[in-house]
Amino acid sequence: MIQSMTGYGKATAVFGDKKINVEIKSLNSKALDLSTRIAPVYREKEIDIRNLIARRLERGKVDCSLWVEKEAAEAATPINVALVENYYQQIKNISETCHIPLPEDWFVTLLRMPDVLTKVEVQELGEEEWVTVRATVEEAIDRLVDFRMQEGAALEKKFNEKIDNIERLLKSIEPFEKDRVARIRERITDALEKMAGTDYDKNRLEQELIYYIEKLDINEEKQRLANHLNYFRETLAGGHGQGKKLGFIAQEMGREINTTGSKSNQAEMQNIVVQMKDELEQIKEQVLNVM
């Protein structure tokens, strides 16, 4: 089954007082375009995380976010009590020495002093925590891949519908094509008969008609287009990683449809060609999303 390049996956895990969150989004792109936003404590593992994502997702514009939430009690910045006491004694001493009045609101004054509310924390990533983070990243990737497969199934259904429509339209050309030769011959013959007193070589006329009709013949284009339609179906059934190939086949289908249109000199045939172009254009738009 094909996969879409559009996807979304999120996973969470709890480690101690931390809630680890991983969110991965992807859109279509010609190659893998990966950007990451990783919490500082896990940045030493950024290359490992990028390699995990690259191996699984292969293509697409991918955005990965890894952040940590902590419980409110743990996240609160503690007050440095020893430093507050020290500032308190210093201010009292200065007041006595310099005869400066003491502050009316001690708390406001002390809490504004440098480093009283500064949180000094050295974080180190342990092996056990990294195992949890890695598993969470892999779970988010799994969910994104599941999303891609669901989108891929919808795309495959749509592609098959469009290919069936083009095939049906191609067959609908045949009655007009057979009638077209007789109409061309009749139109040219009638025009010559209306030219009073004009003598012409009927054998030469027949040769010119054959040459003209051969130039308008679309059997080869029809056959090649039919082959491309079958090849598109086979490639579609080949699994993921076929997006570029499907795009190339769609281009070839477009060439045969355009040539058929240029050789069609009947309004009915040209209308059918326009409908085939419309179906193909919808395929081309969606094939850009295929892995």
Structure description:
The protein is rod-shaped. Helix 9 packs antiparallel against helix 10. 62% of the residues lie in helices and 13% in strands. The chain has helices at residues 46-57, 72-75, 81-98, 106-111, 127-172, 174-194, 202-215, 219-236, 243-263, 267-287; strands at 7-15, 18-27, 32-38, 60-70. Strand 1 (7-15) and strand 2 (18-27) form a beta hairpin. The protein folds into three domains: 7-74 and 125-148, Ribosomal Protein S5, domain 2 (2-Layer Sandwich), CATH 3.30.230; 78-111; 149-287. The mean pLDDT is 86. The chain contains ten helices and four strands. It has a four-stranded mixed sheet with strand order 1-2-4-3. It is α+β, with helices and mostly antiparallel strands and 291 residues long.
